[in-house]
Amino acid sequence: MIPRYARAPMLEIWEPATRFRIWYEIEASACDALAEMGVIPVSAAKNIRERGDVSFDVARIDEIEREVKHDVIAFLTHLAEHVGEDARFIHQGMTSSDVLDTCFSVQLSRASDLLLLGVDRVLAALKTQAFAHKKTVCIGRSHGIHAEPTTFGLKLAQAFAEFDRGRKRLVAAREEIAVCAISGAVGTFANIRPEIEAYVANSLGLQVEPVSTQIIPRDRHAAFFCALGVLASSIERLATEIRHLQRTEVLEVEEFFSAGQKGSSAMPHKRNPILTENLTGLARLVRSAVTPALENVALWHERDISHSSVERGIGPDATVHLDFALHRLAGVIEKLVVYPQNMQRNLDQLGGLHNSQRILLALTQKGVSRETAYSLVQKNAMATWRGEGDFLSNLLEDTTVGQYLKQSELRDMFDIEYHLAQVDHIFERVFTDSDQ
């Protein structure tokens, strides 16, 4: 990741100093448990807590690693430099993956908590804007073509429901990833007791992995990164909608354009949707973590190391980028400029064609076959499409249509409120069922 697309609280989780602090807490908690069980002297555990609780010298650990070619051994060597003779009691019966995997669980859990804050901010912004534009009428589009009326508030309510589902997935993914494994070289507890694992897990706010090998099974991690990928896709979906609606010929909404902001180095008139374009790119980066995470599931026997290099990249990259994207999206929604007059202009652009289905249904209810009704409506609709009069006028002049529908009935069928009748009901379903 690069600082341009990162927020400090999430970056801190992945700093080397944070990682070493978590490693220390794992090792020290294991020693506390061993001391309580009488396996090591209480004085040793106390000394490890007192003398090992330091600001770890990252440069020194890196220096040792260059020699020993092993990051956990380098850390333990540096820790021993502070603890002294009692360091022999550290890492009793444990393997490096006990430390690495449990630490990764802590980091992903903390990252999840920050991501949930970002999702909550997005949900709050969407809810506020959805209710503000609950009855702001606009044209709905399918295949990019005008379909039937909807409201801008409904568009945002749809996004709210999607992010609410994404939040639930993230909560479940956090629960699944928040596990600890302190079970030794192949997960058999041959040289360490399960009580130690339970003690460490409790101290870190984790659950124990019921059955580990040398590592925590990677299906947990795969599910976690899949949840992030879906959230990223939800961000992209909403960002893409805003980008389309900001196109010059549409201009129904617009990203906030601040005083002094410039849109182009060449064209002073430009007001580009750069934030939502950026979100589209960030979504691609987050999703790029999904396939490697899935491929990490199939490791050799009780463990190989092929997952390690992948996770050292996708762990920070995916969470940092998604965290940034969530807060950027929330800012876009909070300051979104909405143009109801342009929505109405676009709605009227096709001369009432958005009522075609209502006319079709009315004819069938008058006894006309669906095929005949479709042909009648389409004939008049295509005339309007070609610029030959508005839809209502064409229908009123069609004597065949007039055999089944009175002119007053036709005029009533162009009432926009018909299309909005269930908006309140939909809002009630979306926002009553949500915890947000």
**CATH-level-2 architecture of the largest domain:** Up-down Bundle
Largest β-sheet summary: 2 strands, antiparallel
Number of structural units classed as domains: 3
Reading off the top of the CATH hierarchy, the class of the largest domain is best stated as Mainly Alpha
The span between the termini is 31 Å
Series of secondary-structure elements, N-terminal to C-terminal: HHHHHHEEHEHEHEHHHEHHHHHHH
Instruction: Write down how many β-strands occur, each being a DSSP E stretch of 2 or more residues.
Output: 6
Strand content: under 5%
Fraction of residues in helix: 55-70%
Mean of residue pLDDT? 95
CATH topology of the largest domain, by name, is Fumarase C, Chain A, domain 2
**Shape verdict:** elongated
Structural class: mainly alpha
Radius of gyration: 30 Å
Name the strands of the widest sheet in spatial order: 1-2
Keywords: Lyase, Purine biosynthesis
Catalytic activity: N(6)-(1,2-dicarboxyethyl)-AMP = fumarate + AMP; (2S)-2-[5-amino-1-(5-phospho-beta-D-ribosyl)imidazole-4-carboxamido]succinate = 5-amino-1-(5-phospho-beta-D-ribosyl)imidazole-4-carboxamide + fumarate
EC number: 4.3.2.2
InterPro entries: AdenyloSucc_lyase_C, Fumarase/histidase_N, Fumarate_lyase_CS, Fumarate_lyase_fam, Fumarate_lyase_N, L-Aspartase-like, Pur_lyase
